[in-house]
Write a structure and sequence with these properties.
single chain, alpha/beta, 4-stranded antiparallel beta sheet, globular, binds 2-acetamido-2-deoxy-6-O-sulfo-beta-D-galactopyranose, binds calcium ion
Length: 514
Amino acid sequence: MKTNKLFLILAAGLFFSCNSSTKKTTSTDEPTEQHVLKPNFILLYVDDLGYADLSSYGAKGVETPNVDHMAKNGVLFTDAHSSAATCTPSRYSLLTGNYAFRNNAAILPGDAPLLIDTSIVTLPKMLQKAGYTTGVVGKWHLGLGYGKVDWNKPITPGPGEVGFDYSFLLPATGDRVPTVFMENDTVVNLSQDDPLTVSYEHKVGNRPLGTERPDLLKMKADPQHSQTIVNGISRIGYMGGGKSAEWKDEEFPFVFTEKAIQFIQDNKTTPFFLYFSFHDIHVPRAPNARFQGASEMGPRGDAIVQMDWVVGQINTLLEKEDLAKNTILIFTSDNGPVLDDGYMDKAVSMVGNHKPAGPYRGGKYSIFEGGTRVPMIVYWPGHIKPVKSSAMMNQVDIYASLAGLLNTPMGNKVLDSENHIDALLGKTENGRKIMIEEGFTLAIRDGQWKYIAPFTSGEIPAWMANKDIESGLQKQPQLYNLAEDKGEQKNLADQKPELVEQYANKLKIIMDKS
Ligand code: NG6
Ligand code: CA
């Protein structure tokens, strides 16, 4: 690959001066292809962070100096997207390089089976083949085992079979059981005398439910989040036993940061990939006392400040360990923003004049731009010229882009991932030409044009309608010209039937690909 070779030659000089694991070269050595460039990769994957939830993207009422530093000195993308408007589908795409609809990926309960086929070559497996040690710390939400697992025994398949050498996980999300950490395939701190049981159908164990003891709650919740109470927060699902393994939500930033730091330190002499998957700023928002009141927006804003602090800790470590110049950081979010997502945490009443999705319509769950257009920053000190890029980017392409950089083959079941490494590193603003966006229906983006397929099958969940969430779903086709109408207000489908037909056909071709 031509670009790659050129990149290798240009970057090799800098690289060899800073990676202690690399075979030393003398000044007379000419960089050649066998001197494979292997920067470390850290993916800082924030949960539910909206397009404008960072000060570098125009947030009001909250400051994010650590992320802003990366934005100022790296590539800040204005048209970058998670593959879908919710967590499980986005993460599925990120790790497999395939759009989530190909596997009907949808938000999973906490006792779901592993969603990723363990026989395929995933992003972390590709990196393992290229000589990387791989780790995931934080939220998983891709299922574990074969479903309805025995939490008291090692659980496989899981991250290990997906391609991670190390994992320290919150198995699903903070708002659902089991509320325990897992290290590799085992629940942490579990006592065999007090076995852990989980059900999403009926009450298990003797912990009170939110519906039974609202007086015990730190914050009130909607009916779906009013089951087993752990740490004063009612959750989705029922959990019995496992008392010694219970997490404390307020400790997440320290627990996960410590594990991420440990992973980096343990692997600093070999190339590594760390998928650092934040719980922030997902519900329940229970920031540590240290961050309470740190923003003007209540717990949601404080969770943003907490998240920013964690990012600062990672960057400080990379500087201290002299790894910064040899580590590519990609910072982004798994879907757009949501204020009320089940808990009464003042996110709505304290939002002030802050607009979490900026000028875009909708947010998490939505097929409008706010659903998937998220902040994305790529930071690689000494290698990247700071730039604001309008390239159309999608997280499904991180896989092929890193494979392209390393000149390593992808698996043969990767259908959607495209190599946009030059755009990712800010060398060009030519990103994707065509891209799928996914909410409860599919949309297609072709530059300024956006076609949203009619939503004809299935029901919009009732809780979404009750929560004032703009799903963007309509029985009619929608067509928007984002160049003139960022906020997707003016449906041009009736005026431009030929474009509607063209995009409906294009969408079908992409969907039928195999
Ligand atoms: C929804 C939950 C929401 C959140 C979401 C997953 C209800 C009413 N809502 O079903 O609170 O947990 O799932 O979020 O239960 S995600 O970011 O992991 O996709
Ligand atoms: Ca999410």
